[in-house]
Amino acid sequence: QVQLVESGGGLVQPGGSLTLSCVASGSTSSINAMGWYRQAPGKQREWDATITSGGSTNYADSVKGRFTISRDNGKNTVYLQINSLQPDDTAVYYCYADRPFRGRSWGQGTQVTVSS
């Protein structure tokens, strides 16, 4: 199994920046892609970004240019840098990890609140 723990959320003013972290433990050697979703109050969870073990990245159109996903395989950690935060970015941010033939594991989420 893989366990994921997110951190780095909090209260941020509009226009600010934040970097979220997600540390994986357990059967990490088999992890392929990792990424981030978010779920705003009253809305469905939506995908934001993915990074493969080789470093290839993919972003939702809605976050391109503001979100940057990165990964440190040695630390089993994936990061999500978010710039120019707006109130609409308020959500619980979840990281995930995919393993071949084992499916997807999820973290417990970290709250990001954008407010003045």
Notes on the protein architecture:
It is a single chain. A hairpin with a 6-residue loop joins strand 4 (34-39) and strand 5. The model has no long low-confidence stretch (mean pLDDT 96). Strands 2, 4, 5, 6, 9, 10 and 11 form a seven-stranded mixed sheet that branches. Strands 1-3-8-7 form a four-stranded antiparallel sheet, with no helix packed on it. It has strands at 2-7, 10-12, 18-26, 34-39, 46-51, 57-59, 67-72, 77-82, 91-99, 103-106, 110-114. It is globular. It contains no helices and eleven strands. By secondary structure, it is an all-beta fold.
- Total number of helical segments? 0
Which runs of at least 5 residues are low in confidence (pLDDT < 50)?
A: none
Estimated share of beta-strand residues: over 45%
* Gyration radius, in Å: 14 Å
User: What would you call the quaternary organization?
Assistant: single chain
The major beta sheet can be summarized as:
7 strands, mixed
Helix and strand sequence: EEEEEEEEEEE
What's the quick description here?
The protein is mostly beta strands and 116 residues long.
What's the helix and strand layout?
Blueprint: E1 2-7, E2 10-12, E3 18-26, E4 34-39, E5 46-51, E6 57-59, E7 67-72, E8 77-82, E9 91-99, E10 103-106, E11 110-114
Parallel strand pairs: 2-11
Antiparallel strand pairs: 1-3, 3-8, 4-5, 4-9, 5-6, 7-8, 9-10, 9-11
